[in-house]
Design a protein that fits this description.
Blueprint (H helix, E strand, L loop, with lengths): L32 H8 L1 H4 L17 H6 L2 H10 L19 H15 L15 H11 L1 H4 L14 H6 L2 H10 L15 H13 L21 E2 L15 E2 L1 H9 L4 E5 L3 H6 L6 E2 L20 E4 L5 H12 L5 E4 L2 H7 L11
Parallel strand pairs: 2-6, 3-4, 3-5, 5-6
Antiparallel strand pairs: 1-3
Length: 351
């Protein structure tokens, strides 16, 4: 079995096998993989790693992935996430909760749970007819992965981190063999060998390059600043099903400078990349004990959001309501749709 502990010793390699870290030391950690998975991953990927528990997060138990993924593929997926999707960066250097050693423990556990032995695929490029691949993609792949590879009910195949860390051979193997136990079928026999090459070449043609972002340096604001526009009238937000508020109504309340609280349930790394103005980070895996004393217990609406768009925010809302903050709501569309609508987004410590 290719242990994830080998990742830290990888030097710069060809496309899809970039080194995972420059630190070769793996020190002791008291965490175990099962506990780390339950705390950080199960919300979206499912308690049994089956996937699609929230926002169509992929399965983490399909044996094909662990057999053929390049060594750095899963490391970078966890450490740096998938920008523009609900998959956040979990490395502490990016503001996430996982230390270097904890990430090793988690990935070692996932690989052990897969029960398969990894195999090395060639690093040589797959040559194919890109135009033909685009046609096949539109016919066979776009329904699930999105017309432009933006993702849908299946992963975003145009994501820069994915394309920077997935080798051509891994992409082709995935298309050919599919993912056992998931909606992703095997296309070998459905597509001929030249079509498999063509789709792979088309996906690779979408790569625009990616470099690991610099470490996070901005600290979040103090929880005592949770209430925005504290001296203004309370924001009046229509509520759907006693739980959800619309992005348009929240945006209007911010523009009118109404009294409101915004909480970001995503990992801190996503808050660093961009958040609703004035929102405080309350990651879903940390609990709400720290923030509750700073929250109003009156008519002020407390709006929680994530990218899922309801899983992480819903978990935080449930915890806040259990703690007595009953006027707590989920931003219905989530942060990705918020940004897509052009509503204001703050970066780092900006409010």
């Amino acid at each position: 079995m290719r242990s994830c502990r080998l990742f830290a010793c990888l030097a710069a390699l060809p496309l899809g096998r970039a080194h995972a870290t420059s630190d070769p030391h793996v020190g002791p950690t008291t965490a175990d993989g099962a506990s780390l998975y339950a705390q950080y991953c199960a919300l979206c990927h499912g308690a049994e790693r089956e996937g699609h528990a929230a926002d169509h997060a992929p399965s983490l138990r399909a044996p094909e992935m662990f057999e053929s993924a390049p060594p750095a593929f899963l490391w970078y997926a966890v450490a740096y996430g998938r920008p523009g999707t609900a998959m956040a960066a979990f490395a502490t250097e990016q503001g996430g909760p996982l230390s270097h050693d904890e990430q090793h423990v988690l990935l070692d556990w996932l690989e052990a749970q897969s029960g398969v032995t990894g195999k090395d695929l060639p690093d040589t490029p797959v040559r194919g007819d890109v135009e033909r691949g685009e046609t096949v993609y539109a016919e066979r792949c776009a329904e699930c992965h999105g017309a432009t590879g933006q993702g849908g009910t299946a992963p975003a195949l145009a994501n820069p981190v994915l394309l920077a860390t997935a080798s051509d051979a891994f992409l082709r193997d995935t298309i050919a063999r599919g993912r056992t136990g998931t909606p992703m079928p095997a296309f070998r026999g459905v597509l001929d060998e030249s079509e498999l090459d063509a789709v792979t070449a088309f996906l690779r043609s979408r790569a625009g390059g990616w470099a690991a972002p610099a470490p996070v340096v901005v600290n979040p604001p103090d929880p005592s600043s949770a209430i925005q526009n504290a001296k203004s009238p309370v924001a009046k937000l229509p509520v759907r099903q006693g739980r959800f508020v619309a992005a348009a109504d929240v945006a209007a309340a911010l523009a009118a400078k109404r009294r409101i609280v915004l909480l970001d349930a995503r990992p801190l790394s996503d808050w660093q990349r961009g958040h609703l103005p004035g929102a405080l980070p309350v990651p879903y895996y940390e609990g709400v004990e720290r923030i509750v004393p700073h929250l109003p217990d009156d008519e002020t609406p407390i709006v929680v959001y994530c990218a899922c768009p309801h899983a992480a925010s819903g978990k935080v809302v449930d915890a806040l309501r259990a703690a007595g903050r009953t006027r707590t709501y989920v931003l219905d569309e989530g942060s990705l749709v918020w940004a897509a609508h052009g509503y204001p987004v703050a970066i780092g410590g900006a409010r």
